[in-house]
Amino acid sequence: MKVIVTGSLGNISKPLAETLVAQGHQVTVVSSDQKKKAAIEALGATPAIGSISDVKFLTDTLKDADAVYAMIPLSFTEPDLGSYLRRMAQNYVQALKQAGTRRVVLLSGWAANLTQGENVEDVFDDLKTSLTIMRPAVFYTNFYQSMDLIKGKGLIGKFLTLRYLGLWALITGKTGLLMGNYGGEDRIVFVSPKDIADAVAEELLLHPEKKVIRYVGSEEMTCNEAAKIIGTAVGKPWLKWVLLSDKEMLQGLKMAKMPEKLAGTLVEMQAAMHSGKALENFHRNKPKMGKIKLADFAKEFAKAYK
Fold first, then answer.
1. Which residues does 29 contact at the CB level (< 8 Å), separation at least 6?
2. Cα–Cα distance between 86 and 75 in angstroms, integer?
3. Which residues, in sequence order, are CB contacts of 160 under 8 Å at separation 6+?
4. pLDDT digits (tens, 9 = 90+) for 193-204
């Protein structure tokens, strides 16, 4: 089977490509980075160097493919994240139609249907093809973005490599924290990118007649329980995940010079998790949990931390 994998050699795309190649499929990996060409070839896959913003490139790449894994990388330089995501989604739909692709697996997010700025799933409803929408929970790998903050150079949270919040930590002395407008005792589902990749690999081989929505998770716990696992692994068992209000979070993002629309979208995404609605949706769909636990990831994190 000829499979196109977008997302370059990212946390999901790399293990997905490895799995598909091992299964004997003909795999093409799309990357905008020419420097990734040799690494893609080393996996046994064919590199396609170009951008999903280029509809012609995308159409040519998808031509004759049996299945496509489609993802849109988040951009924190775009002033309007929602507008950017919709443009890229429309590029995909145009290219998929022109290429006549029969099977598509789209990466979304577990709170995507609860936020106006992030949700582009409806754009793909125009496709007359077999479609699965993947809604993975909070990535374990998001903790890497907070490594310096955990070390005491700031704070921790998905988007908190921010000058304002880092300054707040230094002033108050509250280093070694996780922060966000979700956190504390909020119950969250976390997920390993490898478990997501395995789920995507399964879906690519299927061909449902109707649109399928599949949630993916690895382990459920409170944010503070997650913080303790990560903290213990790096010698800071007191690590806490501080819950900010939406207003505090928005203020911090704005003071970090983030565009207003983008800041609002990020706050909305996290508020959906704090509200518990994302967890309700997850439980309602009763997905099977993945194999990799946060404690397993914490060992990898600790090696990188040191």
1. 5, 6, 8, 9, 13, 17, 36, 40, 43, 45, 46, 47, 48
2. 12
3. 146, 149, 154, 166, 179, 180, 252
4. 999 999 999 999
Angle among Cα 19, 24, 27 to the nearest 5 degrees reads: 70
Q: In this structure, are residues 262 and 177 in contact, taking their beta carbons and an 8 Å threshold?
A: no
What is the distance, to the nearest Å, from the Cα of residue 17 to the centroid of all Cα atoms in its chain? 17
Residue partners of 17: CB distance under 8 A and separation at least 6:
5, 9, 27, 29, 40, 43, 45
Helix, coil or strand: residue 70: strand
Tell me the per-residue pLDDT of 62-121, one tens digit each, with 9 for 90 and over: 999 999 999 999 887 888 888 999 999 999 999 999 999 999 999 999 999 998 766 899
Structural element, H or E, at residue 169: helix 163-172
Residue 73 one-letter amino acid: P
Low pLDDT (below 50) residues in the chain:
153-176
Please, are residues 291 and 278 in contact by the beta-carbon 8 Å criterion? Answer: no
Concatenated DSSP letters of 101-165:
--EEEEE--TTGGG-TTT--GGGGGG--SEEEEEEE-EEGGGGGGGHHIIIIIS-BSTT---HHH
Cα-to-chain-centroid distance, residue 6: 13
The sheet carrying 138-139 orders its strands as 138-139, 187-191, 219-222
Q: Which domains does the chain have, with CATH numbers?
A: 2-136+193-216 (3.40.50.720), 140-188+220-283+293-305 (3.90.25)
Residue 164 CA from chain centroid, whole number: 24
The predicted pLDDT at position 268 comes to 92
The answer to whether 107 and 142 are in contact (CB under 8 A) is no
